[in-house]
Amino acid sequence: MDFTKTEIHASVDALADQIFRGQVNDDYHKARRDQSEGFDRDLWRVLADAGLLAGTLSEASGGSDMNLLEVSGLLEAQGAVLAKLPLWQSIVASQLIDRFGSQDQKTALLPSFARGDSHLSLAFAEAARADFDDLLKIKNHSVNGLVNDVAFAQQASAIILPLQTDDGTILYLLDPSQDGVTLLLQMASNDEPHYQLQLNNLSIDPVNIIASSNGGVDLVEWVLQRSYTALAALQLGVVQEAIKRTANYVNERHQFNKPLSSFQAVSHRAANGYIDYSSLRACVYLAAWRLSEDKDASAEARTAKWWACEAGHRIAHTAQHLHGGLGADVDYPIHRYFLWAKQLEYTLGGAQQQLASLGRQLANNDSLGFVI
């Protein structure tokens, strides 16, 4: 695989890395540890002022039409510093609205997102499962029930919510502040605010429907492929930084008058972590490239998510293990990479869920994975 980046891709990487590392460090996390605010809105606006939020939109919507391969560098930079932002959710949701939403929906939601004044979220935990039996169903133009694990829902300008109808599946732009919506806080492992949505006689306004019932299921898959790939790109940044910090530690830490890195068991385990990272990177870039070329990436996106689960799990444990007692010290930063890796591992389904989905695809297509 050719990992040579385009000029735009390299520029986005450099700018994102400069912003995130300039704004977020270990002291930043300690200072914000006890703050209840959902995310750093000042940092959100810095990204907007740099054009990185608007850049993910089409030129018709005032953006730079950056594709997902170019956006992956932005997510990697976020993951490297563990910046708690609704970035991947907003990117996927805004691109969905930009491409498939009505002009009124675009006008109402996209300009404020591009300015950094608002964010978007996704409610796809149930849709990511094997079938849509768990999706809430519209009855008599209203919805009742629970939706779990919606990140940054409280102040989102809209939440993309898949719903069942008698004719199929639709995507609905849910305003979390409207009547009939109650939010119950569910703090995630990495301290992100996630919410359970309790819907009680929520009135469905046709104006807020993105997709017709005929195209709704396809758009659910459209969202899932991009969500899996974005999550894997974010995990790529997390594990790369975890490996880097671990390598620095075992080179500096001495035992028996030797650096820890000189011991064979230590070097082998660190090397295995790098192999896992490299495998994840290859899968992320392949899935992102296919989506950027508007190709189907159903298998590639799920493979990238599987590697995000497996590599995240193994590298996070390696980093903890090779740091010894410091790995369990919450005043030392490496534990945060463990918590983030575990949270991303299970977001929208863990490794077994991805394998089950790939197995179903393989049963119907024995050449799966051979055609680029």
Can you describe this structure in just a few lines?
With 372 residues, this protein is α+β, with helices and mostly antiparallel strands. It contains 11 helices and 8 strands.
Question: Please, could you describe this protein's structure?
Answer:
The relative contact order is 0.11. The chain is globular. Helices cover 52% and strands 13% of the residues. The chain has 372 residues and is an alpha+beta fold. The model has no long low-confidence stretch (mean pLDDT 92). The longest helix has 40 residues. Helix 5 runs antiparallel to helix 6, helix 7 runs parallel beside helix 9 and helix 9 runs antiparallel to helix 10. The strands form three sheets. The chain has a three-stranded mixed beta sheet. The protein folds into three domains: 113 residues, Acyl-CoA dehydrogenase/oxidase, N-terminal domain (Butyryl-Coa Dehydrogenase, subunit A, domain 1), CATH 1.10.540; 92 residues, Butyryl-CoA Dehydrogenase, subunit A, domain 2 (Beta Barrel); 150 residues, Up-down Bundle (Butyryl-CoA Dehydrogenase, subunit A, domain 3), CATH 1.20.140. It contains eleven helices and eight strands.
